[in-house]
């Protein structure tokens, strides 16, 4: 029984398809462009940004990385974004989080034009997602939807429980599962009797940031368990929010960490860059590019 949802393999499969799409776009004179801005020296962020750049190159996306010092002012950052907003070669703009504390992240993210907001964090894109007319959506939950689809998990009528209410994962995940006809519950740090609710979940998405918090006793037999956690233990080993060994036998499908949700997140970022480029190709009446 194939039980493991292999994010790495699915990611490879998507990359092959995307490379073909990009080739076709290029034959029509369009090169999808992704700009990633990183402020400061955060080690983890540097690694993610390098991985994104590598994946983009592999697919044929024109990827530019803008590295700014920790001392960059908010105004300087806003000016950079404004230039990218108006740059016809750039389809997607991503500002790597977290930002240094002297910068108001909300103001910065809101300054990205919604059409190029490849993370789907802009209020316009959040509103479209919740009205079931999404164009650009956050990559992590989008990758999870792709995983469910590929492994033939139809959310229709299922109890989907999400642990965590962040704007990056929990909330958009709830909207997407609702749009896919699931019965959706979000639980969080203030929820009473959390386990009683997770035990009812046919689909359980865990994004709480506590290492191996979810045990076999917390899940329903046959549940599909999606682990969004990324915790480093004392030996710098990556662990999820789900106790994988403990839950493995009880779940019908389960994602590993690493090799689950993480690789799909980056892959979906590329997918959305391509989708934006395709939309702009359709709208390009002149030959501005
Ligand atoms: N504006 C913005 N958009 C983001 O999408 C964004 C961000 N900021 N800030 C940081 C988080 C984190 N994130 C990850 C992406 C891929 C892996 C990934 O590929 N993980 C590998 C393992 C990598 C390793 O071993 O360290 C895996 O799970 O197999 C992890 C984390 C995107 N983020």
Automatic annotation (TrEMBL):
GO terms, molecular function: methenyltetrahydrofolate cyclohydrolase activity; methylenetetrahydrofolate dehydrogenase (NADP+) activity
Substrates-to-products reaction catalysed: (6R)-5,10-methylene-5,6,7,8-tetrahydrofolate + NADP(+) = (6R)-5,10-methenyltetrahydrofolate + NADPH; (6R)-5,10-methenyltetrahydrofolate + H2O = (6R)-10-formyltetrahydrofolate + H(+)
All residue ranges annotated as the Tetrahydrofolate dehydrogenase/cyclohydrolase NAD(P)-binding domain in the record: 138-280
EC code: 1.5.1.5, 3.5.4.9
Keywords carried by this UniProt record: Amino-acid biosynthesis, Histidine biosynthesis, Hydrolase, Methionine biosynthesis, Multifunctional enzyme, NADP, One-carbon metabolism, Oxidoreductase, Purine biosynthesis
Transmembrane regions listed in the UniProt entry: none
SUPFAM superfamilies, per database record: Aminoacid dehydrogenase-like, N-terminal domain, NAD(P)-binding Rossmann-fold domains
Pathway: One-carbon metabolism; tetrahydrofolate interconversion
InterPro entries: Aminoacid_DH-like_N_sf, NAD(P)-bd_dom_sf, THF_DH/CycHdrlase, THF_DH/CycHdrlase_cat_dom, THF_DH/CycHdrlase_CS, THF_DH/CycHdrlase_NAD-bd_dom
Binding residue positions for NADP(+): 164-166
Domain Tetrahydrofolate dehydrogenase/cyclohydrolase catalytic, residue spans: 5-119
Subunit structure: Homodimer.
UniProt function note: Catalyzes the oxidation of 5,10-methylenetetrahydrofolate to 5,10-methenyltetrahydrofolate and then the hydrolysis of 5,10-methenyltetrahydrofolate to 10-formyltetrahydrofolate.
Family to which the UniProt record says this protein belongs: Belongs to the tetrahydrofolate dehydrogenase/cyclohydrolase family.
NCBIfam families (alphabetical): PRK10792.1 (NF008058), PRK14186.1 (NF010783)
Name used for this protein in its record: Bifunctional protein FolD
Source taxonomy: Bacteria, Bacillati, Bacillota, Bacilli, Lactobacillales
